[in-house]
Amino acid sequence: MDWSEHSPLNGELISVDFEVFGKVQGVSYRKYAVAAAEKFNVRGWCKNTAKGSVRGNIEGPKAQVYLMKDWIRNEGSPYSKTESVEFGMEINIPSYKYTDFSSMEEEDKEEEN
């Protein structure tokens, strides 16, 4: 059994959705988010939305997720200009759903409606 997949040895695992608004598309935001996620050792995904935001999910030990949330809130891509960030409710999870943090393809416009 891979114990790194479970919370007892790795701290309490949580998952949280996020959406970032402002100048966050066309500025390598997702590329920098992937690098930050690797630095903070969190997993999940992010993608551009049809309405011009970036949304995604972060999962990992609570302390690491908080570091990533801080990066999203206060840093982002050096070329971005974050106007606001919305985080969903933090949910305790028994194990990881994702194997890494990835940048996904942009949403279809129909998915936004």
UniProtKB/TrEMBL annotation:
Location of the Acylphosphatase-like domain: 15-105
What Gene3D superfamilies does the annotation carry?
3.30.70.100
Q: What Pfam families is this protein classified in?
A: Acylphosphatase (PF00708)
Transmembrane segments annotated in the record for this chain: none
Provide the active-site residues from the annotation: 30, 48
Reaction(s) the record says it catalyses: an acyl phosphate + H2O = a carboxylate + phosphate + H(+)
The protein's Enzyme Commission number: 3.6.1.7
What general EC class does the enzyme of this chain belong to?
A: hydrolase
Q: Which UniProt keywords apply?
A: Hydrolase
GO terms assigned for molecular function: acylphosphatase activity
Q: Does the keyword Hydrolase apply?
A: yes
Member of which family?
Answer: Belongs to the acylphosphatase family.
Q: What is this protein called?
A: acylphosphatase
Q: What is the lineage of its organism?
A: Eukaryota, Metazoa, Ecdysozoa, Arthropoda, Hexapoda
